[in-house]
Protein backbone atom coordinates (compact mmCIF):
# COMPACT_ATOMS: atom_id res chain seq x y z
CA UNK A 1 0.00 0.00 0.00
CA UNK A 2 1.37 3.38 -0.92
CA UNK A 3 0.35 6.90 -0.03
CA UNK A 4 0.96 9.40 -2.82
CA UNK A 5 0.77 13.19 -2.86
CA UNK A 6 -0.05 15.13 -6.01
CA UNK A 7 -0.96 18.71 -6.79
CA UNK A 8 -3.79 19.04 -9.25
CA UNK A 9 -7.38 18.50 -10.18
CA UNK A 10 -9.10 15.45 -8.70
CA UNK A 11 -11.46 15.13 -11.66
CA UNK A 12 -8.48 14.18 -13.88
CA UNK A 13 -7.16 11.36 -11.69
CA UNK A 14 -6.82 7.87 -13.15
CA UNK A 15 -7.93 5.93 -10.08
CA UNK A 16 -10.75 3.53 -9.28
CA UNK A 17 -12.49 6.06 -7.04
CA UNK A 18 -12.32 9.79 -6.42
CA UNK A 19 -13.73 11.11 -3.18
CA UNK A 20 -16.05 14.11 -3.28
CA UNK A 21 -16.37 16.67 -0.48
CA UNK A 22 -20.15 16.74 -0.89
CA UNK A 23 -22.86 18.33 1.19
CA UNK A 24 -25.57 16.41 3.01
CA UNK A 25 -28.20 17.03 0.33
CA UNK A 26 -26.03 15.31 -2.32
CA UNK A 27 -27.34 17.88 -4.80
CA UNK A 28 -23.98 19.24 -5.86
CA UNK A 29 -22.44 22.55 -4.91
CA UNK A 30 -19.32 24.65 -5.42
CA UNK A 31 -15.63 23.84 -5.03
CA UNK A 32 -14.56 20.28 -5.63
CA UNK A 33 -18.20 19.11 -5.58
CA UNK A 34 -19.07 21.39 -8.49
CA UNK A 35 -15.94 20.33 -10.39
CA UNK A 36 -16.77 16.63 -9.98
CA UNK A 37 -20.38 17.03 -11.10
CA UNK A 38 -19.31 19.15 -14.11
CA UNK A 39 -16.65 16.66 -15.18
CA UNK A 40 -18.70 13.53 -14.48
CA UNK A 41 -21.94 14.67 -16.05
CA UNK A 42 -25.53 13.97 -15.13
CA UNK A 43 -25.18 10.26 -14.38
CA UNK A 44 -23.71 11.26 -11.01
CA UNK A 45 -26.55 13.56 -9.98
CA UNK A 46 -29.09 10.94 -11.06
CA UNK A 47 -27.54 8.35 -8.74
CA UNK A 48 -27.25 10.95 -5.96
CA UNK A 49 -30.98 11.66 -6.29
CA UNK A 50 -31.77 7.95 -6.04
CA UNK A 51 -29.74 7.77 -2.83
CA UNK A 52 -31.50 10.87 -1.51
CA UNK A 53 -34.90 9.35 -2.23
CA UNK A 54 -33.85 6.12 -0.54
CA UNK A 55 -32.11 7.43 2.58
CA UNK A 56 -32.65 11.20 2.63
CA UNK A 57 -29.13 12.41 1.84
CA UNK A 58 -25.86 11.68 3.61
CA UNK A 59 -25.09 12.67 7.22
CA UNK A 60 -21.82 14.39 8.12
CA UNK A 61 -18.93 11.93 8.39
CA UNK A 62 -20.65 9.23 6.34
CA UNK A 63 -20.13 8.23 2.71
CA UNK A 64 -22.09 6.96 -0.30
CA UNK A 65 -20.94 5.67 -3.68
CA UNK A 66 -22.00 6.44 -7.27
CA UNK A 67 -20.62 6.12 -10.76
CA UNK A 68 -17.93 8.62 -11.85
CA UNK A 69 -19.78 9.22 -15.13
CA UNK A 70 -17.47 10.75 -17.74
CA UNK A 71 -14.40 11.04 -15.51
CA UNK A 72 -11.41 8.67 -15.84
CA UNK A 73 -12.30 7.18 -12.43
CA UNK A 74 -14.95 4.47 -12.11
CA UNK A 75 -16.63 5.56 -8.89
CA UNK A 76 -17.22 8.68 -6.84
CA UNK A 77 -17.36 8.25 -3.09
CA UNK A 78 -19.32 11.21 -1.73
CA UNK A 79 -18.57 12.08 1.86
CA UNK A 80 -19.80 15.03 3.88
CA UNK A 81 -17.19 16.94 5.85
CA UNK A 82 -17.99 18.96 8.95
CA UNK A 83 -18.44 22.73 8.84
CA UNK A 84 -15.73 24.10 11.15
CA UNK A 85 -17.30 25.86 14.12
CA UNK A 86 -14.26 26.38 16.34
CA UNK A 87 -13.24 22.72 16.76
CA UNK A 88 -15.30 21.82 19.83
CA UNK A 89 -18.36 20.51 18.07
CA UNK A 90 -16.99 17.11 17.19
CA UNK A 91 -15.31 18.38 14.03
CA UNK A 92 -12.10 16.28 14.37
CA UNK A 93 -14.05 13.02 14.81
CA UNK A 94 -16.42 13.91 11.99
CA UNK A 95 -13.55 14.72 9.63
CA UNK A 96 -11.73 11.48 10.57
CA UNK A 97 -14.98 9.58 9.91
CA UNK A 98 -15.09 10.99 6.37
CA UNK A 99 -11.73 9.36 5.58
CA UNK A 100 -12.53 6.17 7.51
CA UNK A 101 -15.98 5.62 6.01
CA UNK A 102 -14.74 6.42 2.49
CA UNK A 103 -11.98 3.82 2.87
CA UNK A 104 -14.46 1.26 4.23
CA UNK A 105 -16.78 1.81 1.31
CA UNK A 106 -13.81 1.55 -1.06
CA UNK A 107 -12.73 -1.77 0.44
CA UNK A 108 -16.30 -3.11 0.27
CA UNK A 109 -16.39 -2.24 -3.44
CA UNK A 110 -12.99 -3.82 -4.19
CA UNK A 111 -11.49 -0.45 -5.05
CA UNK A 112 -7.71 -0.61 -5.31
CA UNK A 113 -6.83 3.05 -5.92
CA UNK A 114 -8.54 6.04 -4.34
CA UNK A 115 -7.96 9.80 -4.49
CA UNK A 116 -8.95 12.19 -1.70
CA UNK A 117 -9.37 15.97 -1.87
CA UNK A 118 -8.69 18.12 1.21
CA UNK A 119 -12.14 17.65 2.73
CA UNK A 120 -13.67 20.62 4.61
CA UNK A 121 -10.72 22.94 3.95
CA UNK A 122 -12.57 25.13 1.44
CA UNK A 123 -15.95 26.71 2.12
CA UNK A 124 -16.37 24.59 5.28
CA UNK A 125 -13.41 26.45 6.83
CA UNK A 126 -11.47 23.68 8.56
CA UNK A 127 -7.92 24.88 9.46
CA UNK A 128 -5.74 23.29 6.80
CA UNK A 129 -2.92 22.02 8.99
CA UNK A 130 -5.26 20.29 11.45
CA UNK A 131 -7.29 18.84 8.60
CA UNK A 132 -4.13 17.49 6.92
CA UNK A 133 -2.97 15.85 10.15
CA UNK A 134 -6.35 14.18 10.63
CA UNK A 135 -6.48 13.02 7.01
CA UNK A 136 -3.01 11.48 7.05
CA UNK A 137 -3.32 9.90 10.51
CA UNK A 138 -6.70 8.37 9.72
CA UNK A 139 -5.51 6.93 6.42
CA UNK A 140 -2.34 5.49 7.97
CA UNK A 141 -4.35 3.89 10.79
CA UNK A 142 -6.88 2.29 8.46
CA UNK A 143 -5.03 0.40 5.79
CA UNK A 144 -7.79 -1.87 4.57
CA UNK A 145 -6.91 -5.06 2.75
CA UNK A 146 -7.14 -4.69 -1.03
CA UNK A 147 -6.48 -0.96 -1.22
CA UNK A 148 -3.17 -0.49 -3.01
CA UNK A 149 -2.87 3.25 -3.42
CA UNK A 150 -4.23 6.26 -1.57
CA UNK A 151 -3.63 9.54 -3.37
CA UNK A 152 -4.01 12.92 -1.69
CA UNK A 153 -4.84 15.46 -4.39
CA UNK A 154 -4.13 19.02 -3.28
CA UNK A 155 -5.57 21.81 -5.38
CA UNK A 156 -3.84 24.69 -3.64
CA UNK A 157 -0.18 25.29 -2.77
CA UNK A 158 -0.84 25.70 0.94
CA UNK A 159 -2.40 22.25 1.30
CA UNK A 160 0.26 20.68 -0.90
CA UNK A 161 3.07 22.14 1.25
CA UNK A 162 1.38 21.03 4.48
CA UNK A 163 0.81 17.47 3.24
CA UNK A 164 4.37 17.29 1.96
CA UNK A 165 5.75 18.37 5.34
CA UNK A 166 3.64 15.89 7.31
CA UNK A 167 4.20 12.96 4.93
CA UNK A 168 7.97 13.42 4.92
CA UNK A 169 8.33 13.84 8.71
P1 LIG B 1 -15.65 21.89 1.65
O1 LIG B 1 -17.06 22.40 1.55
O2 LIG B 1 -15.58 20.46 2.17
O3 LIG B 1 -14.75 22.82 2.38
P2 LIG B 1 -14.57 22.73 -0.94
O4 LIG B 1 -14.86 22.14 -2.26
O5 LIG B 1 -14.99 24.15 -0.69
O6 LIG B 1 -15.20 21.73 0.13
O7 LIG B 1 -13.03 22.63 -0.65
C1 LIG B 1 -12.35 21.43 -0.32
C2 LIG B 1 -10.99 21.42 -0.97
O8 LIG B 1 -11.12 21.05 -2.33
C3 LIG B 1 -10.28 22.77 -0.95
O9 LIG B 1 -8.97 22.59 -0.41
C4 LIG B 1 -10.21 23.15 -2.42
O10 LIG B 1 -9.00 23.86 -2.72
C5 LIG B 1 -10.22 21.81 -3.09
N1 LIG B 1 -10.63 21.75 -4.51
C6 LIG B 1 -11.43 22.60 -5.21
N2 LIG B 1 -11.54 22.18 -6.49
C7 LIG B 1 -10.81 21.04 -6.60
C8 LIG B 1 -10.51 20.13 -7.66
N3 LIG B 1 -11.00 20.29 -8.89
N4 LIG B 1 -9.70 19.08 -7.38
C9 LIG B 1 -9.20 18.88 -6.14
N5 LIG B 1 -9.44 19.69 -5.12
C10 LIG B 1 -10.24 20.75 -5.34
Automatic annotation (TrEMBL):
SUPFAM superfamilies cross-referenced by the UniProt entry: Macro domain-like
PROSITE patterns (UniProt xref): MACRO (PS51154)
InterPro entries: Macro_dom, Macro_dom-like
Matching Pfam families: Macro (PF01661)
Domain of life: Bacteria
All copies of domain Macro, residue ranges: 1-169
PANTHER family, sorted: GANGLIOSIDE INDUCED DIFFERENTIATION ASSOCIATED PROTEIN 2-RELATED, MACRO DOMAIN-CONTAINING PROTEIN
Name assigned to this protein: O-acetyl-ADP-ribose deacetylase
Taxonomic source organism: Plebeiibacterium marinum
Amino acid sequence: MKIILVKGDITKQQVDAVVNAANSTLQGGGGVDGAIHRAGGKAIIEECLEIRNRQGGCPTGEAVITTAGNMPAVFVIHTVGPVYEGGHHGEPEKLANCYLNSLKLAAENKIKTIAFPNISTGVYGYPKKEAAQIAITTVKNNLFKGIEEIRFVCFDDENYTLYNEILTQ
